Structure prediction request, 376 residues.
Amino acid sequence: LPSPPLPDDLPFQTTATDHGLLHRRVLRLPSAHCIGKTPVHPAQSASAALLALLALDPQLASCDLAHALYLDTETTGLSGGAGTVAFLVGLGLWDHGNLVIEQLLVRQLGEEAPMLTYVAGRLRDSSLLVTFNGKSFDLPLLRTRFVMNRLEPPPVRPHLDLLHVARRIHATRDFSCRLVELEKHVLGFERVGDVPSNEVSACYLHFLRTADPAPLLGVVEHNTWDIVSMVALVGLYGEPLDGSQLTGEDLAGVAKTLHRAGAVKEAADTADRAVERAVSLEEPLRVRAELAKARGDRAHALQDFEALARLVDSPATRLELAKLYEHYVKSPSKALEVAALGTTETAPFAQKRVARLSKKVGLGYQQLLPGFDFKR
Prediction:
């Protein structure tokens, strides 16, 4: 049976294609558009080289962010199994400085081919794909749907999954890295009247049964916010580090990731910025100390670990100081002093360290530290 027409209240235009009817909504946002406090326009000129380092994916470095394709799906289930269908696909792309949001609706189950063919065409025209958890969910789901519809698989493009970048940058922040949480705590935007993700499927099934568009309109708005938020995050994560709007705590996460990617100098410079900008110094100091230690700069590592020890009671920091005092400062007495307060070493190793240091200062450790608990 042919698909019933769309209700007039749904903001989609219907076009006939070789694969059937395509239901598409187009929304154009000016470059000055912001989500919360964060503008979207920096995403066009974001540094692909920086994003490649943060994503730990060198192939992203040569991509043109002005020709990125942002993709997000709304589906009939959250499992991503063979029976799950992407009934609404949101696409974001740049066109003459404007952010264009395209949304493709599957009016009826079994009529995915026009949508899938359109998505494949957009992928062919793009330089890279940007998603949020798309490597684990959206892209495998769409590939399955191409197979199920006996269509040629979509072209492979370099893929920036922002979820992994967000987890590295905001690892120590007191919120989860769900997109709505990033909007609230990073972009300065809080959704009002949003459809929760676990209710999206029910809204679509209600539409299929009743043709009532009201619940589906909320899903369309939800999908729009997802796309625009991804664009804003790309601009934020990919802006020059010397002018970054990220907090000092987040810059500490950036520094750790840059060092992991092999950008040692950039990591050190970013760690300095993190300490300068941080409200809470604990994590930035820890990161800067660890990075200094990793590159063999024991003088700066000692300075930061000492500052950290004054700030927080940290057995891990005491262990680092014990090592530096013994082997760099050549002061076994200072090393023994901090080691005796307890470190993260297991009891046998702690006992061995204290015994060695006690011998170096000329005293038996059991005489010097009769109350020391080696099981700590």
Notes: The two ends are 73 Å apart (CA to CA).
